[in-house]
Structures are given as C-alpha cells and as structure tokens.
Write a structure and sequence with these properties.
By secondary structure, the chain is mostly beta strands. It has three helices and 22 strands.
C-alpha cells in the first residue's frame, strides 16, 4: 500500500461452517457496505464475519512503513484455526511483528457488534431515493413464521430439520412441477406450522415448501435451541435484520426490534440458544430457497423453499420457462403450459 492512501477491502466468508474474525495488524477498518447495503461508517478493530456474509471496509495506510499481517481466525470452535496474509507498504523498512492481534472471546461481543450495524438512511442505492425512504417499520405484519432448527438420527443417519421437517429434493424440480400445474403430484404446501410445537419429536423427511401470498409483509423468526452457531440465507430477497437476542422469541420481543435503520441484507446469524428476527415483503414471484449456510446442514435437510405465486400470471411478475429447458421427472413429455403474457 502507498503511504497515506485509503484502500477498499472486500471481506467474505465463503467457508462451509465456521465464523471468522478478521483484523489487520496495527490498523482500523471503517465499515462502508454490507451485502449490497450502505451502512453507517463505524470504525472497528476487528469484524466477525459469519458464514455467507460479506463486508466492505476502508483501510488507510497511516502507520509506520513496514509489513503488517492480515489475520483471519475461526470463532466459536474448539480448535482455533488461523490464516495470515501480509500488507506491505511500498516504502516498507521492516518485517511484520510476530505478535498477532488477538480475536475477541465469546459470542456476546459478536452480538453487540451486530447491534452496532446500522443502515445509512441518507445514502443512495440503485435509485434516486435514499435508502431510508422505504419505511419498513411502519408496515403491518401479515404473517409470522418461526423456524426452529433441530438435529436427529433417522434410520441411523444424521438429518437436520426446520420445524421437524428435513427437506429432500424430489425427482421433479419443485418450480417445474408448479409451473406445469402438477405440484400436488410432487409435494405438499405448508407441511410445517407457522408456529412449531414446543417440543419437536421425530423428524420427517420430505420436501418442505411454504406457500406465501404475493406481496405480503412477513416476519420470520429463526430460533436456535442448539449450542452451535447458525447462519441462514434467503434467495431472491433482501430482508431487514431487526433483532438478535438470547433466549426464546415471544410476540412481546417485538418492542426490542430496530424498526428504523436495520440493515437490509441477505444472511442472518443466530447465536446458540438465541433467536433472530427478519422482516421482508415477498414481492418477487418464484420458488426461493431458505437454507442454512452451514453446508453439511443444508445438504442434510436444514432448508426449505418458499413459493411466491403472482395471481396475475403476468410477465410483469415472472418470466416464462425457457423453450429449451430440459424436462425431467413427472413433467417430461407434458405439453408446454400456456405462456405468461403482459
């Protein structure tokens, strides 16, 4: 780096399981962006980056000219793994110090860092209006869904589940079955309840599809009763991460939501024995995946799909399936459905 210059770094956790703490020896980081959203530009000495999350930070080369270590180490794991890289000043006069900055301890620190993240209400997004012109906190919630993760062994094999259902993909792709009008022959909608039972017993292995009303404003609670860290991603949407707290969720917890400047993002972490709440409008027609970002969990069933159908069946809301799409399963050989029109 050239002395006195400011550089933008993009930090992404593309791992399979572990939260990472990222820091730069002798330097602070100014957070400017998070998963596509401009944020209030707070300064941090280190950042916890959970699985699937991405941050952009500004780093100024204002220290003594020499080498410095970039450090990424695992968090919330029994064995701490550490990786290092080197930042080198162009006029550097010495090697990096072997004394690496230490990562914080415990997940309470990480929870407090989450609470410090704020949407920059005056920044412009991909439109002339500032980010804060969408007042999500004043919209009435039309549906609340609580998703509780669990693990069990079924037939001697480990499975992970949401609300007692461990998702498995059918032979016929879900969206293809829906598009061809044979969804009832492939899967059932809403096999899980919006509010799970107090105690989840035996895990059921089957396709897990929620039927959502187009353009409804929905509250989703991710509740983690386990001792392990969780991270979730929702395809097709950004959502407002309004709260993370220890314990179990109840409607009274809404009084603690950030209804003004929660960050619009696509992933949310859930700490052990804790819950996280997100708000969003399901205004993007399609079949969208909600999944654990811990890939062993997603692979073994800790995921589901959200079906959002536009009642208009219009090209304004959703494209037609391509004419050259490969057909398989129960839709193979069926005539092409009537195409959507404007």
């Amino acid at each position: 780096m050239k002395p006195g210059k400011t550089y933008k770094y993009r930090i992404c956790n593309a791992g399979l399981k572990n939260t990472l703490n990222f820091r730069i020896q002798g330097h602070t980081m100014k957070l400017v962006e998070m998963e596509g959203s401009h944020v209030v530009q707070n300064v941090y000495e280190s950042l916890d980056v959970h699985v699937g999350q991405c941050f952009s930070v500004l780093v100024t080369s204002n220290q003594a000219p020499k080498d410095y270590y970039m450090v990424a180490s695992t968090r919330f794991s029994k064995q701490v793994l550490t990786a290092k890289g080197i930042i080198r000043y162009t006029n550097g006069k010495g090697p990096a110090s072997p004394e690496l900055p230490e990562a914080p301890v415990g997940w309470a620190w990480s929870l407090n860092q989450f609470r410090s993240f704020r949407w920059n209400l005056t920044a412009s997004a991909a439109r002339p209006n500032p980010q804060g012109s969408y007042h999500y906190g004043s919209i009435n919630i039309t549906r609340t869904i609580k998703l509780v993760n669990s693990a069990s062994r079924e037939g001697g094999k480990l499975r992970y589940a949401l609300n007692g259902v461990s998702h498995v993909n059918p032979e016929t792709p879900l969206k293809m079955a829906e598009y061809y009008g044979i969804a009832d022959k492939v899967f059932k909608y809403d096999t899980i309840q919006d509010m799970p039972p107090a105690k989840i017993g035996k895990v059921v292995i089957q396709p897990n599809v929620l039927n959502q009303t187009f353009r409804n404003f929905v509250e989703i609670i991710f509740e983690n009763h386990e001792k392990s860290m969780q991270s979730y991603h929702l395809d097709g949407y950004s959502f407002f991460a309004v709260a993370i707290e220890p314990g179990t969720w109840t409607p009274e917890k809404r009084k603690n939501y950030n209804l003004l400047d929660a960050v619009s993002r696509t992933t949310i972490q859930v700490f052990p024995k804790s819950w996280a709440a997100i708000l969003l409008t399901f205004d993007n027609a399609g079949m969208w995946n909600v999944r654990s970002e811990m890939w062993e969990r997603a692979y073994l069933g800790q995921q589901l799909y959200v079906s959002v159908l536009s009642p208009e069946l219009s090209l304004r809301d959703e494209y037609n399936i391509p004419d050259n799409a490969l057909l398989c399963g129960k839709v193979k050989g069926l005539p092409q459905p009537k195409p959507y029109t404007i």
